[in-house]
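Q: Here's a chain of 306 amino acids. Please give me its 3D structure as C-alpha cells.
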Amino acid sequence: MPRRRSAPRAGLSGDAAVTVRGRLAARGIDGVTLLVLPAVALLVLLFVYPFLYGLFLSFRPKDGSLLGNYARFFGDPFFRDTVWVTMRLALPVTLLNLLLALPIALRVRHLRRQRLLITVLVLPITLGTVLVSEGMLNYFGPQGWFSRTLMLLGLIGAPVKLVQSYTGVFLSLLITGFPFTFLLTLSYVTGIDPALEQAGATLGAGPSRRFRHVLLPLLLPGLAITFCLSFVQAYSVLPSAVLVGDPSRTTRVISIAAYQAAFEEYDYAMASTVALIMGATQLAVVGMALGLRGLLYRGPAGGAKG
C-alpha cells in the first residue's frame, strides 16, 4: 500500500501567512499602512509623551497640594493677566492680517505678474523674527530714521515710542504674520472656479453682490482655518515680546511666564502648568472659531473650492 505524502510544513505556514495578510487587508492594514508606524512612534516620542509628562508635573507643585499650581496661576495677577495680554496681542493681529490678506489676494489672482508681487509680499517670512525686530529697532527706535525724519520735517517735537511697547510687538507680529496669512488666503481664493463669478456677472450681479453671495460663502470655511493657524502662530509671541516689547510689564505674555518659571525659578511643575493653560486657551479660541464655521458651513475641512 503506497504511503501518502504529508503536505510540507512550509506550505502550511505560507497558507497561514496568506490568511493573516488577508485578514489584515480586510481591516485596512497592509504594507503601505505599516509605513506610518515610524511617524506614529515619532509623534508619541516628541508630542504625546512630553504632554503627558507635563500634565503629570503640573499636579506636583512645590507645596504638595494637587491643584496648587493652578490655584497659584489663577489667584496671582502676575500669572493670570498674562492670558489677557497675550489675547490682546494675538486676536487683533490675526483679524487685521486676515482683513488685509483677503482683498489683496482677490486682487492678485487677476494680475499677470503674480509671482513678482507674491515674492515681495511674502519676503518678511524669510527674514525671521530676530531680523525683523532688529530692523524695527533701527528704524522705529528713538533715534531711528522714522522719528528723525518726522522731527526734521517739524511734524513732531520728540521721538515717537514705537518699540519697547505694545505697539512694537503688534507691528512685529503684523509684519511676520501677514505673509503666512496671505499665502493661506491666496490658496483658497485661487481655488475657486472663476466661472462661478462670471456666471454671477452674467446674471446681473455687481462686484459687491458677487463677493457676498458667491465668493464669501466659498471662502468662509478656508478663512476659518486660516484664522486658527494664524492665531496659533501669533499666540507664541515670545521672541517679539522680548526683543521689541516691554516683557516686564505691558507685553509680559504667557510664554514669558512659562520661561521665567522654568529657567529663572527652576520650577518645572509651574512651568508645565503655565504651558498647559497656554495650550488650553489657544484650543478654546480655535474651538470657538471652528464652531462658528460649523454653523455656516458643513462639508470638507478646507471648504468647497469652486
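Q: Can you summarize the key feature?
A: Confidence is low (pLDDT under 50) at residues 7-12.
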